[in-house]
């Protein structure tokens, strides 16, 4: 998704802006650009492709200037090309924008009717022209931005500069993230803390509809009515080192291997020998959870898959009804909300537009309360929830979620256990499940040892165009997550089915060109799964089975292989089985030579609808 960096400083800002954009590359983008005020001139460079291509243009012809804005664009209105890349300039104004302006067409037509000629297809250039037109009427830059954002419908985070006011940058946000980095004699704007951590660790998180003016010496925040508002400065805990790739070839590989630590951090001080500790969901959390009679879970993508696992868990152990839905569906339909239902939003970034909108919509629907399970403490989802349980995964840079998923499962397991205990789960069983959960980091560590075998297996997938993933029960969401990983980073079409559904349609696809990946835990459904796998074998399909060490299997299939995984118990098995599937996708993608950390067309944090 688009990334924004802006700076006003005594030093030349173009190198700082470029460094900030590089930190935002993980969000996904297709072009990059920057604009700097040099005297009363706007100097602008833009390029399709990577930040380093724009950087080489700058290095070939560097320019000074202490005020500037920069952007990585993820195309929404108009093709990814130089003309549509940001910053957009109109008259004296240059602007960068993340989001979508829904009423841009009539605004654009009105400007065209007055003779304005546009050079791009973007909604952003319309904003630049509107702001410039407001300055023509005698307004200062801040007033002009305020006047324009009041007219806008949709979502935006913007940073704007003007030739007439060379010592300031104006920022504004609604529905897309923007924060201020407070330096000494210099100040910054960025889409997230990571973009600014190289220059400062002091951050001001802007609220919805805030407009901010930064100069070298001052940061002033205003509400949409133009009145000053107070916003706290926070010290970010992010360290510049946390986002280094180190010895690993890709961030995704590093993040897969960080899972034992990330899961252990997520469980730390939250569960002990006598069970889940009190007050881990925030003030009033335990009292609220005691009243829960049902749960609705809303999320997107990988986070949605974590929610599906939680449905199996909460219904089995806490005996509470659970509904799980993707946020983009939930927000536009009239879901029935029974009394005393808890709304749970799951999001790595906490800025996913659909999840955030669904959470806001839930306020109208009469829930008992909202709980955010999230990885970014300062994010909008966390700030707007009643209760929160942070996943302590650390920054996740690879677009494909890995440690975010397993830490979400760890957090959801804590929620399950708290609800189950509250609802009278047998104490011995409860304590056994708690012990199992505490062993999860160790079991993930063991699963990671399978990497060499999985790497060899990945070779089989190089020429493939399709793959099927099968699981039963709580392993079905794991199969869904495995297929999502494979398709998003290797570009192999993959689908997941509950294994019992195979004969109702997908079996028609199975032939010698179709690898079928199955997850086989040692449980009551094992025999049924084995019958499903026989159906694949009989059609000559290549079977790749990840089977629990304790699961009796019938030896190696004639085509394919069985890899043994120590799942560590039925409760934590979904998290453990996820790891070999992540490794499989990763190595298939590496062998197929795709851009593993930034797969085509995808963004890390989807801040538009
Ligand atoms: C999965 O690998 C993707 N990164 C994607 O599906 C992601 O999980 C989804 O966009 C939701 O993001 P969130 O957890 O930040 O809300």
From TrEMBL:
GO terms for molecular function: carbohydrate derivative binding; glutamine-fructose-6-phosphate transaminase (isomerizing) activity. The lineage of its organism: Bacteria, Pseudomonadati, Pseudomonadota, Gammaproteobacteria, Lysobacterales. This is Glutamine--fructose-6-phosphate aminotransferase [isomerizing]. PANTHER family: GLUCOSAMINE--FRUCTOSE-6-PHOSPHATE AMINOTRANSFERASE, ISOMERIZING (PTHR10937), GLUTAMINE--FRUCTOSE-6-PHOSPHATE TRANSAMINASE (ISOMERIZING) (PTHR10937:SF0). The keyword Transferase applies. The active site is at 2 (nucleophile), 604 (for fru-6p isomerization activity). Residues 2-217 form the Glutamine amidotransferase type-2 domain. It is found in: Cytoplasm. SUPFAM superfamilies: N-terminal nucleophile aminohydrolases (Ntn hydrolases), SIS domain. It comes from the Bacteria. Keywords: Aminotransferase, Cytoplasm, Glutamine amidotransferase, Repeat, Transferase. One of its GO terms (cellular component) is cytosol. It catalyses: D-fructose 6-phosphate + L-glutamine = D-glucosamine 6-phosphate + L-glutamate. Pfam families: GATase_6, SIS. Homodimer. InterPro entries: GATase_2_dom (IPR017932), GFAT (IPR005855), GFAT_N (IPR047084), GlmS/AgaS_SIS (IPR035466), GlmS/FrlB_SIS (IPR035490), Ntn_hydrolases_N (IPR029055), SIS_dom (IPR001347), SIS_dom_sf (IPR046348). HAMAP family: GlmS. One of its GO terms (biological process) is protein N-linked glycosylation. It comes from Rhodanobacter glycinis. Its main location: cytoplasm. The gene is glmS.
